[in-house]
Write a structure and sequence with these properties.
Blueprint lengths: L1 H10 L5 E5 L2 E3 L25 E7 L2 E6 L4 E6 L5 E8 L1 H11 L2 E2 L3 H17 L6 E4 L2 E4 L11 E3 L2 E3 L6 E2 L2 E2 L17 E3 L9 E3 L17 E7 L3 E2 L21 E4 L5 E4 L14 E8 L1 H11 L2 E2 L5 H11 L6 E9 L4 E4 L21 E6 L4 E5 L4 E6 L1
Parallel strand pairs: 5-16, 22-26
Antiparallel strand pairs: 1-17, 1-18, 2-16, 3-4, 3-16, 5-6, 5-7, 8-9, 10-11, 12-13, 14-15, 18-19, 20-26, 21-26, 22-23, 22-24, 24-25
Length: 391
Amino acid sequence: MQRLLNSTTAQYQAGAWIGLQRGWRWSQSGVEFNESESEWFVGQPDNRDNQEYCVRMKDGTWDDDTCTIRYNFICYDENKTFHIINSEKTWLEAQSYCREHHTDLISGVKQLKDFKRQHQDNNGQSQNNGQSQNNAGQSQNNAGQSQNNGQSKNNAGQSQNNGQSKNNAGQSQNNGQSQNNGQSQNNGQSQNNGQSQNNGQSQNNGQSNNNAGQSQNIAGPFWIGLFRDSWNWSDGSSFSFRSWEKNETNAKKTCAMTTSDGKWRADDCDETKPFFCYNDSVILIKENMTWVDALYYCRAHHHDLVSITNLDEQRWVQERAKMASTQHLWLGLRYTCTLDFWFWVTDETVCYTNWGPGQPGDDCTTAGAMNRQGTWVKKHDDHQLNFICFK
């Protein structure tokens, strides 16, 4: 940070970009937001009164809204199914509900397109597991010709029941197997409120009301999994250090820059300025390998498995560990039974350590790993984990 301050004051009096930005994120982990694919309504997002940080969808387009307003919402399951939840909740309540009962709030343009396609197909076909068609008062069910546990087929007032059938002046009362609300009346109409069920009642009076597979209203508004995040670093790290100018509160400017005195200020992202780059000396490999395979991979593609010799390196590596897809990840730390000590594969002496409680012990088949919180643990070397390489 001191090097950045020196560079700012000496060379870039007008300021320069740094990799800190406030922008939109999807709720589901791993789904990236791409502004070019967004479906904003005209004039949106507008962040009215600087309080609209969550996104709802209405008629297929998006607009930002206050997160505490209650709307119905759409959940996503990992098996690529979607659930319209007709229970109005705040955005955070909706997110918690979806994560508890499904996977997450619907996230990403691809999921939204799949959701629309799925429901358009349902609307076009109106598929019911017993679709009801009416031709001149005749009730036919494609799933089995109005099967009412007694196969009641009613054609122009005539009732044929394989079970119990009584015909009085064209009226058929079925109090047994073929229950049509206790009575099947055929006066040019067929009312099937019993076993010929389309998710409840199928009333056919010259029209078809289909409740099983009935097309749901997808116009909305619904909460979706898009929200405006607080400031975050472009490389995904979560360093909490901030150096804002006093009273820096401009919510409409979403990229950070340095100022002549080394402080930070928000500005419009489409402005052109000089910028700072940095070289990261470590890289997280999100592939699952044994410790030995990870060692060979790092040496073949980069430099070596990472070693940590001081607190600064620990902080840098543990930021990468937070983004791992496994609970632990390999370090270049190994135990030797012959000499009875831990060593780094890069030949550095193990001076700095960050072992967890009860660690490390002396097991001949163990290597050093780090959890996502940065604590070191010993693991049998045949576990398959992510790992971090030196570049």
